[in-house]
Structure formats: structure tokens, C-alpha cells
Amino acid sequence: MARIFASTLGFLASYLVLMVPTYLLPYTGSNSSIVNGASAIMGRGPTPMWWMHFWCLFMLILIGHVRGRLVGKGYLLAFPIVALVFDLTPGLSSIPLVPTVMHLLCMILGAMGSVPEAADGVESPSFGGSGRAAMVVSIIAVMGMLWFALATPHRAKTESPASAPALAPAPEPASTPPAAQAKVKASEDSQAVAPPKPKPAPPTPKPGKTAPEQTAKPAKADKPTVQMINIHEP
Asked: Most buried of the four, 26, 72, 161, 170, by CB within 10 Å?
């Protein structure tokens, strides 16, 4: 990696290859606060376009860091860092030309420097930490993309009611056979209490007539017995 960035042509070519996507990805909503905010609220994290945008800018920071150490300009990495902040921060991303100016300064100042020849007994700088950082950020970006991709089908179901599966109709109650219905009805009828029947009113007696009264008839008086006496008999 140090050999590529030690060459001015290699440095500029590498920087341009990673810088161009940062101008194309915003057209897909990579730095849109609305798109990424909605995705974060739904629990899906940033979009894959955001991860690609972030990865490209982080690689530019590493290129500026390596080139700055090779040419003795350690401040070169500050320019891509400022570009990253203004590219991906909501609100600051609406300010034009700031990332462009930062990238141009990094390329111009980096190309103007020259790599000094290594003197005898002087060790060349090691860039193992930059390589490990690039690997870690690449793994994080890939995991972020996979996280979003695996959660996309569930998001589509919750957002679009048309694509949601139709709810199954509620099962209708099973019909009761006629014999069972008759038994149930008979049991209900037996349990029901019949209202008491009203008693018939006593008959109203007609005017002029009285109700027959059961009275004891008076006993007939004994008739006097008359005995005829014949005076002529002896």
C-alpha cells in the first residue's frame, strides 16, 4: 500500500477512484436525512448507500494519512475528515462546495510533496495500523448492509398494506344437527316456567234472581188424628 501512495500518480488515481462515488451516491439518497432517519426509526439502520458513502470517505482519510506520512505532511488527513463531516451530517450536507474544496486541497498538497529517499539505517514508516483500520471499517460496512438487506422484507410488509397478506376470515361456527337442536329446545322449554293461568271470575248474578241458597226445608207438622167414636155400639 505504501508503494502505491508513494507515487504521485498512484496517489491521485486512488484518491479520484474513491472520491467520484461520493458525488454519485447522494443521488440515491445516501446522505438524505429523511431517508436514513426513517430507516433508523424503523430499526433497520442506515441504508446501504449510506454505508458505501461512509466507506469511500473513510478510505480517503486513510489515503490522506498514508500520503501525508510519506511526504512529511501529516495534516493531509484533516481535509478528507472535514469532507466526511460535511457530507454525512444532516444540515451540513446542504452546504455546497465544502467537500469539493477539501478534496482538492488534499490532492494538490499531497501531489506537491515528494517522498524522501530512505537513508541508511533509517526505518521506513509502518502502515500496518492503517491496513487494520481499513479491514475493520470494511467489515462494519458489509455488516450494516446485510443488516438492512435482511430486514427489508419485514419493512415492506409493514409499510405497504397492499402487499400484506389478506387476513383469513374468522371460522364460522359449526352447524348443530337438527336432532341436537330439538333436544336443546326441549330442555329449554322444560326449564322455562309457565306463567300462572288467571282464575275465572265468578258469574255475576242476574238482576231479580238470587242465587239458590241451600236452606233446610221446614219439617211438616203432624196432622191431628181424628178418631171416630160410635156411640151406638154396645
From this structure: 26
